[in-house]
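Q: I'm writing up a methods section and want to include an example of the input and output format. Could you take the sequence below and give the corresponding predicted structure tokens, formatted cleanly so I can copy it straight into the document?
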Amino acid sequence: MSTVVDIISRLRAMAGQFRPAEAEVAKIVLEDPFFAGRASIAELADRAGVSQPSVTRFCRALGCESLRDFKFKLAQNLAVGTNYIKQPERLDDDVAHLAQRVMNVILDGIALARDQLDHQAVRQAIEIIAETRRLDIYGVGGASHGVAMDAYYRFFRLDIPCACYGDNHLQRMSASTLGPGDTVLAICNSGHIREVLESAEIAQQYGAKLIAVTKSDTPLARLADVPVLVDVPEDPDIFKPTASRLAQIAVMDVLATGVAVRRGAVVHEKLRRIRHNLIPVHAITPQPRSTEPTPKSHRRKRSRT
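A: Here is the clean output for your methods example:
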């Protein structure tokens, strides 16, 4: 796989190394990279107030063969979106205001997920997981794998044999060993990750059920036997938490609680055992008293009677 050149980082790192005319072009590119990505050499030179050959020299200084090569590499940067290109605003020094802003994003995302939740789909997912012989959880990438791990921590305590896989090779191997009576819980916010889709299809081929926590109208949602849809938009402020991730974790708690209630006494006993064996870990162990004799110099002198 070829490495994508981060031309924006290279441009920022070279600040102060350009000739004066090239520095003017660099300034225009950083101020409005979307204009630079679509402008002709004449338009870029005109806005920077330099000659067209200066634009060409600027591109070559960055290691690009031509303006066309530069614009191609710049387009790869621009694909991440405006919010990741423009310089961030100064952080809010008011911690109370900062906490309110961040917490409101979390609360709004969870409330939206609650209001749009398909209760019939949730019921079906709970029934399948409660009766499954084995539960394999798939999630690729930082956010989805984090949710998948959180789901694993919830479900393994409910007397369900389960595992969590974030590596696509291990997902394919896992899917190949599943069969009727087994279940895949696939977590993918975009619903388009090829590795997750392929592993899910392999599992279904051998008779396993597929529950997907994803967005609506996505390949994964259409593939799933039971799609549990979470359509939570992300906040444009890239410094704020990923709202969809936190909403998905809340949905995992709904599923896990439903499965625990459905499995009843067996889960109650396992949770009792877990709690019983964690008490020594959580308890504060008193420090043992020293058995060494007190030095003579520290002993209290007794008065003779």
